[in-house]
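Sat 14:20. Reprocessing the chain from the morning session after the first attempt stalled halfway. Input below, unchanged.
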Amino acid sequence: MHSFINSGPFEPCPTPFNLAAYVLQAGLGVPDKIALQIMGKTGAERWSYAALTKAVRGIGTGFLEAGLQPGDRVLLRLGSTVDFPLAFLGAIAVGLVPVPTSTQLTQAEITAMAAQIAPACVVAGKDVTLPDLSVPVIDEARLQAWRRNAPCDWEMGSPDRLAYLIFTSGTSGNPRAVMHAHRAVWARRMMWQGWYGLTPEDRLMHAGAFNWTYTLGTGLMDPWSVGATALIPAEDVTPEALPLLLKRHEATMIAAAPGVYRKILNQNEQIVLPKLRHGLTAGEKVSDHIRASWRGAGGGELYEAFGMSECSTFVSASPTTPAKPGALGKPQEGRRVAILGDD
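Finished this time. Tokens:
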């Protein structure tokens, strides 16, 4: 066995703990600061930390008043709208277990996946395929009305208890629900400096859809956990339009899959982004050509990360620890990475 340990154990997660309360805690000190901007082609929808927290806690109250109990699974069938993170955090706030799923799934696919988790209810967007199961359905109109409810109390408890489930096919090809404890978000702190170089002053644009787990973690939960601003493109924004939005909204960081950088470069030989410090990339291997082209076009450095749905990223490069030529990066501080033999 070859073991690579960057440092000693990471600081343990506090107890009692609630993932949603933790994600929104930094915003308590800056209630009027913009937590989220949904960037359209001509304008932006803005959410302050105060408004975001009120909506999340109101939705938590709505779930409880609908009769759900801590531990119940909530199947999320929501498109790329702000309803997705609000429902996700609102469920976790009161001890429910949200299960995000792709809106592209067929009824047979989502029915089979739902049967694995036995959801107590489904939260569904308009025209999104539902599983063939006899469970209550909460539509977007009802979910949005819950934002105005009185705030729920945070359901505090062991950081080891189940917080949410993410379906992944992994190497098997068959979707399986991966369990994530509340402490999973605490472990993401290893990425703040091991990958991002993230500070409260950052304005981090994630180029993915709201309902993608890469966006959920890197684009939303991590910026909010430090009190930064998250920037998310509206559904009708194409990758080619991102440089203009990056400049208009003074993004200091962009996170995207390599394919997004490729599409931007196909349409833009030069990128003038005076506020942008660097880019982040994950989801697939980034080529040396894209990395060099992005740098040559004026976008700065791209820092890559490698991970898996079960535990997010664990090997990465960062502004303080750039990767050596031919390498992806190194284990983040606090991670233990080992190569195991047949024994």
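The radius of gyration is 20 Å.
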